[in-house]
Amino acid sequence: MRTVKGGGKGSGTNLGFGTLRLPLFDKHAVASIDYDLLSRLVDLFLEAGYVRFDTAYTYHDFHAETALRRCLTSRYERSRYELSTKMPMHLFNSRDDLERIFAEQLENCGVEYFDRYLLHNINASNLKKAEEFDSFGFLKAKKDAGLTREFGFSFHDSPEVLDEILTKHPVDFVLLQINYIDWEDLGTRAKRCYETAKRHGVKILVMEPLKGGNLVRIPKEAEDLMRVYDPAASPASWGLRFAAGLEGVETVFSGMNTVGQVEENTALFADLKPLNSEELAILDKVVKIIRENTAVPCTACRYCEVGCPCNIPVADYMALYNSAKSDSPTSPSASSSQYYYYLALTRLRGKASDCTQCGRCADACPQHLPIPELMKDVTEIFEKNPTFPSKK
Ligand code: SF4
Ligand code: SF4
User: Fold this and answer.
1) Of 249, 284, 319, which one is at a domain's C-terminal end?
2) How many structural domains compose the chain?
3) Is the shortest distance between the CB of 249 and ligand 2 below 6 Å?
């Protein structure tokens, strides 16, 4: 298996091929996968010496696994690649369902075993269900039977919940959302999740290192800072080097859907250099600029939350609102991962729709933000219009 040649603490971090955003003929039709281009990307990735692919049952409206069968597994010997996929937590309601979906996934992918198998987006609200159907025992049984080499889960919840799951259910690895803008983000708390996983000694795999492309298209002022320091380095390369340079990160999965992206990323990881102290200092400024350019300039002071009769975590909702607005400024909607974070918060605190419009928060806000009005927007985006995969 290929690992990077770069020295320092990033040495050994692998590049993986994520399949959440495959090349499409029609960007509004997620099942319109350009199979010829995907095959070309797979070829380039393998030719460059990388082997890891990650998919999920629900990606691309349930077409990503079969796309990999068509473009990867039917075209290469099993020894040429490693493949991981995920059990959709919201689509099983019995142990039989687990068995049925797993068997279907082997068929979809055209393989006899997986290298890694995950529970997809486990969190506090579905942990009870996972335990009720002994999902972790199910994963262990599949590993014992040689049907997966390793098992773990992908995660979008708090470090406290991650700690609870890892304490109760030992796994081989976790797949975490880590990137430099989420690192200190109130909603994601990526740094705390990373530290929690490290403390438990599990392998750390990274998803969304470029936050779904948001760290590729950054404000010009922020990109200028990067280009002055290193004219040849793209914003994407800074983001990937940040995630890959974290000690203990084993693999960074990046969704690649153009030849240029595969060429740039494979070249970057072939000679990976973790960010140095000067670059990390520049990244601090970049984060500040990106935050300044976000929709709601909430400073997360939480003054507004103290007197809220509905116990609404306003600062957290503002962070998620900004994230959704930055993904799509004119018609924002919650992505599935933003929605998962919102859902996790509403288990313990008030929903945006609980807001009584009393206005106490606005009186307390040093930034003079129209919080009651913003709660209506948050309700619209996260409670009425989330993007959420469902089986057709
Ligand atoms: S307006 Fe809404 S968010 Fe603000 S304090 Fe009242 S209930 Fe809480
Ligand atoms: S008081 Fe204003 S700035 Fe502070 S957390 Fe609340 S909304 Fe954000």
Assistant:
1) 284
2) 2
3) no
Over residues 349-365, the mean pLDDT reads 93
The pLDDT of residue 357: 97
At position 327, the amino acid (one-letter code) is D
Q: Which residues contact 299 (CB under 8 A, 6 or more apart)?
A: 366, 367
Cβ of 369 less than 6 Å from ligand 2: yes
> Do 68 and 214 have their domain in common?
yes
| Interval 35-62 mean pLDDT | 96
Residue 10 has pLDDT above 60, yes or no: no
Which residues is 179 bridged to in the sheet?
Answer: none
| Domain finish residue from 252, 284, 316 | 284
* Paired residues of 118 in beta bridges: 86, 152
Q: Which atom of ligand 2 is nearest to the CA of 297?
A: 3
CA nearest ligand 1 atom 6, residue: 358
Domain annotation covers residue 296: no
Ligand 1 pocket member 268 (CB < 6 A): no
Residue with tokens 């129209």: 370
ipTM entry: 0.99
> Could you give phi then psi for residue 365, rounded to 5 degrees?
-80, 120
Measured from the CB, is residue 363 less than 6 Å from ligand 1? no
* Degrees, nearest 5: CA angle 81-84-88: 160
Q: Which letter does DSSP use for residue 17 in this model?
A: E
373 Cβ closer than 6 Å to some ligand 2 atom: no
